[in-house]
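Entry 14. Ran structure prediction on the chain below.
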Amino acid sequence: MPILFTLVTSLFLHESPLHLAGNMLFLWIFGDNVEEVLGTVRYLLVYLACGVMGTLVQIAADPDSMVPTLGASGGDRRHYGGVSRLVPA
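Output, C-alpha cells:
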C-alpha cells in the first residue's frame, strides 16, 4: 500500500514555488475547459490517472534512478491532449 500511496502523493510535490506557480497557471488556463466538459469528478479521476501514468512512465524510463519523482507536471501536461480533443480551436 505505501508504494501505491506514493504514486498519488508524488503528484502534489513541486520542485520550487515557481514550479508550483507554473502548474497552477497552466491548470487555471487550460484545466477549466476540460473540467467544464468532463465534470468535476471525472476531471479529478482523469487528472489523477494521468498523473500516475506519467509517474509510471518516468519510473519505467529509468528504474534505477535515485532522483525523486515529482509527478505534478505529468498530470498537468495531459491537459494538452484533453484540450485539443475536447475544446474546439
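Residues 11 and 71 are 4 Å apart (CA to CA). Will compare against last week's run tomorrow.
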